[in-house]
Amino acid sequence: MEEDKVDKLTNTARHGNRVQCLHWGNEGLYSIGWDGVLYLWDVKLKEPIYGHFCPCPNRDAVHFEPKHVIVGLVKTKNHLKFISLGKGEVLKSYTIYAGLDGDRKDCEIQFLQQARFNPSLFIVATSQVPTIKVIKIDGTNVTELYSYEKLTSPIQSIVTSSNKKKAFAYGADFQAFASLE
Fold first, then answer.
1. In a 3-state reduction of DSSP, which class is residue 59?
2. Tens-place pLDDT, residues 32-57
3. Is residue 149 a contact partner of residue 129, using CB atoms and an 8 Å limit?
4. For residue 41, which of 10, 11, 68 has the smallest C-alpha distance?
């Protein structure tokens, strides 16, 4: 029964394509669609309260915090967008590069995952130049702690362990791990 309500709500003419991500927040239901729009919905009226355009969001790189959402984007220069959940405005944008400092390459965010044992640590995986980065997010401030860039194929998944404080990345022909201590 509840699934029918969500289906009717998100399959309105508001999203120009399929919905990638749903999240219940303090203000209501949020949706991000393949059309690149983040909506906050009034579930009683089945109408959005506001919408914010996020070009090319990646559903594997969306993380909701109490006051904002972090969206990993592809095909854009500012790869991480921090969007206020209250008003839908961009609080901050941050660019993630792959490659070493002397050879920085533009990339796309493939995954964004919060470490299970430390809510301020995130693992970011990029495509084009397969890279894993560990970043610390404090509010909307981003600090890159370190990266591992010698991966031989695109990253297919990331898993963090809660007790060993490690992140594991898996690709077609590799397994890599990073200590998060």
1. strand
2. 888 888 888 888 888 888 888 877 77
3. yes
4. 10
